[in-house]
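[Automated response] Your request has been received and processed.

Submitted sequence:
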Amino acid sequence: MYVTGEYLRKHQTWHSEDSEWKAEQILKMVNNHNLMPRTICEVGCGAGGILRQMQANMAEDCTFVGYEISPQAFELCKEHANKRLQFELKDFTQETGVLFDLLICVDVIEHVEDYFGFLRNLRTKGRYKIFNIPLEFTSIGAARGWPRDSWDTLGHVHYFTKDTALQSLKDAGYTVVDHFYAREFDRTSSQSSSLILKLLRRAAFSLSPNLAVRLLGGCPLVILAE
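Generated structure:
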């Protein structure tokens, strides 16, 4: 199971407004490791904006496919489709005999009830995998009673720290190659937190990134794995 019900009604854009920034984080990891994938698949592609941004910034012989199980999101994907970018209204975990140079999975595993089974299923279907995982298990979150009403507002059923995210991948059979914090608090267009909280996060991060994220959050984790 991925996402259903109230979440779908409240997030009809499927966070397409965040696609450019999220694609930048994926491309940063690709470039950091000089990856040159020719086949890229996004599992849980939402409205398709991330793949469209990646297509605009990668080699012209690279092909892309996005898998999405929501008919509502799939309808939004269609405007991005072209010869080298296709979308499938399918559950990727049911696919057999596929192998991509790169799989990307952005803000998905926190929605999946059996995320260990999900991760094990993906592992053999891509040479490299890049995950973007929100880190919501924080001190400030605990103080605010998180995850209060989290199912309705975000659709998340799991909450991660940096350590639990990395260990989950290792327990599912992955080798973690690299990871970095995506500095969401630096986004000028972000509406996810107040200006004061953004400034606190930025100042704390400059002193101790790991401690800052544990205390105040504001940084999803981008992970490259094999």
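Summary generated for your ticket: The CA atoms of residues 7 and 152 lie 5 Å apart. Strands lie at 39-43, 63-67, 85-88, 100-106, 126-133, 176-181, 221-225.
If you did not submit this request, please reply to this message.
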